[in-house]
Amino acid sequence: MLVNGAQSDTSFQRKTGYVQQQDVHLSTCSVRESLEFSALLRQPSDVPREDKLAHVEEVIRLLEMEEYADAIVGIPGEGLNIEQRRRLTIGIELAAKPELLLFLDEPTSGLDSQTSWTICQLLKRLAHSGQAILCTIHQPSAILFQQFDNLLLLAKGGKTVYFGEIGQNSATLIRYLETNGGTQCPPGANPAVWMLEEIGAAPGSDTTVDWPRVWRDSPEHQSVRAKLQKLRESRTTIGVTPHMHTLRQPSNRAYASSFLQQWWLVQKRIAAQYWRSPSYIYSKVCLTVGSSLFIGFSFYNAPNTIQGLQNQMYAVMMLLSMFGQLSEQIMPQFIDQRDVYEARERPSKMYDWKVLMLSNLAIEIFWNTLMAVVAYFCWYYPIGLYQNATSTHEVAPRGCLMFLFIWAFMMFTSTFTHTLIAGMDSADSASSVGNICYMLCMTFCGILVKKSSLPGFWIFMYYVSPFTWLASGLLSTGVANAEIECAPNEYVRFLPPAGQSCGSYMASYISLSGGYLVDPHNTEHCQFCPLSNTNDYLSTVNIRLEDRWRKFALVLVYIVFNAVAALAVYKLVRMPRRSKV
């Protein structure tokens, strides 16, 4: 395709405006913010910011949107009405100040007659102000048809039937069709409907005239070709100087803005989207606070008995069970951004796809950090895990590491969720896959089923599961290096052999297996606790405190891997592939 006599380059999409048939907008942005976003990203980078914003105000005035310029777009049925949304769709393209053309795909489709007339009058004002407009329209009324200056009429198969002026009351078009074999246009008929019937494009109509051939042999066609050749020669004469080529070279970039500017503007918009989505914020806070408090007070001040240690382990596993709910909250936020990007912003070369992914990953860092703080205080302290570090005077360092593990869990959930939703159309499908992955990770993490009890084939899942390192890191940091005191019903009671004390009888067993006696010197009633230290309990599930920082580093590796995988999945699944020439 030639543009101004030259082959189109990578900047063509950015230099043209395309108004889609559907009005796709981010519901949390205001009208002015939507226009400014388009202007700042799509106008050339050498244009001052003040000039871009001034152009936005001019667009608002031109489209008569002053009354609702600061209104939130909202969803269809709430917020802007149909006409206002269509004006905004047109305005977003005008804010980009397209250098070449403004394309519109059936701008009156789905609108009532009054709104259609208003939109056509708006397009006419834009044309009179110097904006080149190319518009497709389907079966317009006679009065709307008269608003257009020139017509490209296509038959089935995309073959040209007519290209030229419509004329006053469609006189030029009617004269051409009647002269070349068409029937006479009835008085009062809609010329748009009549011409479709004449060329056999209307439902139930047929024609015996080969209109594409008639056009190729017509004087009008020769006149158009001569005019195009003249324009091409004029363009070649004017536009080949080295100076002009040098000036045009920087504008041939695919994107008008730098990567850093794209990221900053997109990040600001996503931050506003999250802040203006109270349902997301409330649900995330309520889930984190409610679940953490429920777990914390269900195992309030869990003692270091055998059952108490089981309760502390269950508290850790229940904290990890928030994965599914946290994941389902993130997906709709991302889908809203992705739908707008893929429908309008990617085709118009507004910003890079990597900016979309990185911005969505980055915004979750703030919310995950905030939720980690909330979960830390609502979960860690009510259970009393901090008390296990008092004997070794490590309350502060182990408390900090516990917070880091909770934060890492939140970040893993977020990045893994983005990996899932990056390649799937619906949140339901991604959520189903996520729940399956969660069940596998939880089953093979070595807590519910010990590593030694796993079938040989499934041992690899123990090492692959990120919850192996998360759960063991949380347990070792929260439970290790504390004394165990069995509850009365947990002691093993027995009678020692005659002539031996409890201590002498159990000495060899305790040296091998651990545990302690309540009264080693007793010779009649022995009470034995199978565990004496929480480290003995952790060793039964292959957990050691010395590995806590290594496990935290492994979780960070999973987070980075998920982030890279999210970008790779989106690139492979969602990005259109370049056609091979």
Automatic annotation (TrEMBL):
GO MF annotations in UniProt: ABC-type transporter activity; ATP binding; ATP hydrolysis activity
Pfam families attached to this UniProt entry: ABC2_membrane, ABC2_membrane_7, ABC_tran
GO CC term, one of those recorded: membrane
Membrane topology of the entry: Multi-pass membrane protein
Localisation: Membrane
Domain of life: Eukaryota
Keywords: Membrane, Transmembrane, Transmembrane helix, Transport
InterPro entries: ABC2_TM (IPR013525), ABC_transporter-like_ATP-bd (IPR003439), ABCG_dom (IPR043926), P-loop_NTPase (IPR027417)
Protein name: Uncharacterized protein
Taxonomic path: Eukaryota, Fungi, Dikarya, Ascomycota, Pezizomycotina
